[in-house]
Design a protein that fits this description.
Layout (H helix, E strand, L loop, with lengths): L8 H5 L4 H6 L3 H7 L3 H7 L30 H12 L3 E2 H4 L5 H6 L15 E3 L3 E2 L9 E2 L10 H12 L3 E6 L10 H14 L4 E5 L7 H8 L5 E3 L9 H4 L6 H14 L4 E8 L5 H13 L4 E6 L16 H6 L4
Parallel strand pairs: 2-5, 3-4, 5-6, 6-7, 7-8, 8-9
Antiparallel strand pairs: 1-2
Helix pairs in contact: 8-9, 9-10, 10-12
The protein binds iron/sulfur cluster (SF4).
The site of iron/sulfur cluster has 11 residues, from loops.
């Protein structure tokens, strides 16, 4: 379950302690972090919505920022070397995230603090059995077998980073009888064994709707059970792989919560794919009915020309204005 969106959930909440997860930062905190968003919106002279005949939309100024070049940063080099040696994949690299230099380098603009460098490890390899139309992760019907040492190696790497909050994500493995649930649960166990105080968020597959696998993960010791609905119901079949269904994702989130009510459940929605405001409101109502605790929004960014076009740049003002759904 990987998404191409600016401001990944891992980036947003990486530094928050357990007591602060529930209080968490609001939307304004993230918008303010990028400078004066309303000025940037005023300066934007191009279209915000794709119209018939348009090839693509130009990147608006509020999404442009000074790039931290990954190749120039020592912390980035160190992380790359360590992850390469342990043969661990990261969503940052596989999803070609434009923020890699910033996250791995430690801190945001003007900040260089190695202790807050974050990389989101992608479990179960770098190849997914699904092919969502917004995602640039490699796909194959038969990816290589799981690395049995991955849980131990992941725990070793993360424990050495000195972070208090980690986000693990994974590809979907429909080729495995349990979708990789036991392997993922082992990763959480190993991490909690090495560092019990570490808060662990896992962004998990839908396990093809198998609720036993959902329950196994919900009771594995993780703190935040994340599974992305990615988009509104009406766009799901255009955006996600046909095996990923909106109602199935809602059922997964609800079952995770009922299997372990102490968990926080979380989902993310990409904006800018052509959804309407009413569809977003309906999605939020659905999520509430399914007891989802946290919802994050992200602007969809087209990773390559072969992927879905951005249909709309959602302005920061619109996000703030519509945040009282
Ligand atoms: S299921 Fe696979 S293709 Fe779809 S978003 Fe997740 S990693 Fe990408």
């Amino acid at each position: 379950m990987i998404s191409n969106r600016l401001s990944s959930p891992s980036t947003l909440i990486r530094c928050y302690s357990s007591t602060r997860i529930k209080e968490g930062p609001g939307l304004e905190d993230f918008l303010a972090a990028g400078g004066n968003a309303s000025d940037a919106v005023k300066r934007h002279e191009d279209k915000l919505k794709l119209e018939k005949g348009d090839k693509r939309l130009r990147l608006p100024p509020w999404l442009k920022k000074e790039q931290v070049f990954a190749s120039e940063n020592d912390n980035v080099k160190r992380l790359k070397k360590q992850l390469g040696k342990l043969k661990l994949s990261t969503v940052c690299q596989e999803a070609r995230c434009p923020n890699l230099g910033e996250c791995w380098g430690g801190g945001g603009e003007g900040v260089r603090d190695e202790s807050i460098a974050t990389a989101t490890i992608m479990l179960m390899g770098d190849t997914c059995t699904r092919g969502c139309r917004f995602c640039s992760v490699k796909t194959s019907r038969a990816p290589p077998p799981l690395d049995p040492l991955e849980p131990e190696k992941t725990a070793e790497a993360i424990a050495s980073w000195g972070v208090g909050y980690v986000v693990l994500t994974s590809v979907d493995r429909d080729d495995l009888p349990d979708g990789g649930a036991a392997h993922l649960a082992r990763c959480v166990h190993q991490l909690k064994e090495k560092k019990p105080e570490l808060l662990v968020e896992c962004l998990l597959p839908d396990f093809a709707g198998n609720l036993e696998n959902v329950q196994l993960l919900a009771r594995s010791g993780l703190d935040v059970y994340a599974h992305n609905v990615e988009t509104v119901e009406g766009l799901t079949k255009w955006v996600r792989d046909p095996r990923a269904k909106y109602r199935q994702s809602l059922a997964v989130l609800k079952h995770a919560k009922s299997s372990n009510p102490r968990l926080l459940t979380k989902t993310s929605i990409m904006l800018g794919l052509g959804e309407t405001d009413e569809e977003i409101r309906q999605t939020l109502r659905d999520l509430r009915e399914h007891e989802v605790d946290v919802v994050t929004f992200g602007q969809y960014m087209q990773p390559t020309k072969r992927h879905l076009l951005v249909r709309e740049w959602v302005t920061p003002e619109k996000l703030v204005g519509d945040s009282n759904y």
